[in-house]
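Wed. Picked up where I left off yesterday with FAD-binding domain-containing protein. The coffee machine is broken again, so keeping this brief.
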Amino acid sequence: MHVLIAGAGLGGLSLAQFLREQGISYEIFERDIGEKVRFQRWTIAPHVVINKLTSSVPSDLPGLRDSTNHLEPLKLPAQVAMYMPGRMDRVGFQDKRLKRIEDGNDGVAVYFYDGTSAKGDILVGADGVNNVGREHLIRRPSTDVLGVVPLATIVGENFMQADPDISKPDHWLQKAGQQEKLDHVLKATAKTPSSLREIFEMRPGGEIRREPHVWCELELEKIRLPAGHVILVRDASHVMTPFKGEGGRNSFSQV
Ligand SMILES: Cc1cc2nc3c(=O)[nH]c(=O)nc-3n(C[C@H](O)[C@H](O)[C@H](O)COP(=O)(O)OP(=O)(O)OC[C@H]3O[C@@H](n4cnc5c(N)ncnc54)[C@H](O)[C@@H]3O)c2cc1C
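Structure written out below (tokens, as returned):
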């Protein structure tokens, strides 16, 4: 059995470690080309799955319990871990962007934008919200099945507020500058306890994401998918917002 994994995000990387522990052959392909292409930090709350996670990965990995027991740069009681962009201990990047899938009787072939290809017995599509595997399965653009979550978000550190108009082109967030967005967050959190505001106050305006961010939702269960050698995991099959670090935690549990 040889497993192809598209996407080295939380789902794809966890699956790769689980397969390595089981001695199952795999290859993992990632679109990103460098350790700094991801803008935002990640807060993951693995405490409810930590026992299962620790027992499912190979023993040569750093101790998961200790390495997830912090919340930088704040000194809050630890239950979650914050991962900084640009950390040099992130995995290697491949510049392997999946373009197309061919699902045959004796396995699956994947083709990349750089002209290379790979073959395997199954493909696990772990390439996130705008997923190539999903398009292959539903035979129409991925965006056809994505809904918009009515939330306004300023991404630097996540700041959310119910707002059904967020995807409209004339919404103020679509045009607002970085400092304008940060000022809005500081005003909106003015009455929040200072230990929780600190994360916003420490942020320079230049670290706020320029492009507007629209959250998507997806319920693939409602769509009939064909049988074959392509499987979708996590955001590829069920998109989640980042509340309480549940996206990350569910990635570990689902794979
Ligand atoms: C702005 C933002 C902030 C978030 N913050 C948090 C948080 O703090 N805590 C939390 O728990 N959850 C958070 N989430 C949700 C969480 O990121 C997801 O639920 C989780 O990462 C899903 O894991 P995944 O493996 O399915 O996808 P991802 O982690 O998104 O990984 C998909 C990978 O596939 C790669 N890829 C995409 N297309 C291709 C292609 N064509 N070919 C090859 N590779 C490809 C991508 O580069 C990426 O590395 C956040 C989501 C967003 C959008």
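Quick read: The helical segments are 10-22, 50-56, 64-67, 132-138, 172-175, 178-188, 194-201, 246-254.
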